[in-house]
Amino acid sequence: MRRFPLVLVLALVAAIADPNVGTGTAGLRSGGVVAILGAQSAAPPPSSEWLAGVRAEALARGIAPAVVEAALGNLPEPLPSVIERDRAQAEVVETLEQYIARRASRRTAAAGRTHLIRHRALLAKVSRRYGVPAPLLVSIWGIESNYGRFSGVRPTVAALATLAWDPRRAAFFRNELFSALEIVNRGDIELAKMRGSWAGAMGQVQFMPSSYLQYAEDFDGDGRRDIWGTPADVFASIANYLRGHGWVAGERWGREVRVSNAAATRIAADVPRRDGTCQAARDMTIRLPLARWTDLGVTLPGGERLPSSTLEAALVSGSRRHFLVYRNYDALLEYNCAHAYALAVGLLGDAVAAAP
After folding, report:
1. What's the CA angle centered on 253, arms 251 and 256, to 5 degrees?
2. For position 289, what pLDDT does the model report?
3. Of 250, 265, 281, which residue sits at a domain end?
4. Catalytic residue flag (residue 77)
């Protein structure tokens, strides 16, 4: 069997999820950016000309003139450090197993259990409303921002403006820039406090601005959707995002399994891969009933028979570890479409839920 060795390009995931990755800001001149871009993309427009167009479109979209002036009036030239981070994504490569080991460690799980206890009552309310287990909410919170300790320090508008000016993914980030301006326009966060990752992911949940507008929640009812500092809004926003992407209450995300060499050979011959919009969705099999996986020779890690269930599961494999994942796993991929990320979230959530 081709064992789907997921040697993944994970710099973007690491930049958002790893609290040890810095996201310091800088306001350097665009000449340095052009030198960095080199021949990798089409020449960007003059930044002053580009910014004038952005200001005009923001006003046409109904953003208040005072917000446009505050956000874009003294915007620094495009930031070379942001372009460098965007161009360097392919330089950090980790296997699935390495990524999981770093982000779902015993130490991280122990910290998660502490937070699970500390926020027990609040998490129970959120879980009841949205149908997402409290340990999984804590897991995503832990991986995204080290349990709220680090969510990025870079001014969001400046980072998004740089990436919207850069031709490589201009359309995507231009939309995110206008979404960020809309968030300020609605009064959810002061401009000076809107900070996050180099790629514009914000707050303790690391939402892009468009995701914030669609899924952020005001769970405490104070009139603001505060994913930067209010635990109630943080947990509810994560839960609402997962529910909005198909999370089914009462079902698990998946489980680790054993795949023998003989089973691997049979699976390679008989089980096709899925289609999908991102690479991770294609690096897994189609879903099959658990009974079919049993027939193919897949077992629990200790060699026990798979449980009887009507759920269907797909197989995800690294170089050494294998997982059967259910439909809720797709909701985790929607949060970040990388198997290493989704599996780390699921495994950390299981560890947080378990007794120490």
Report:
1. 125
2. 96
3. 250
4. no
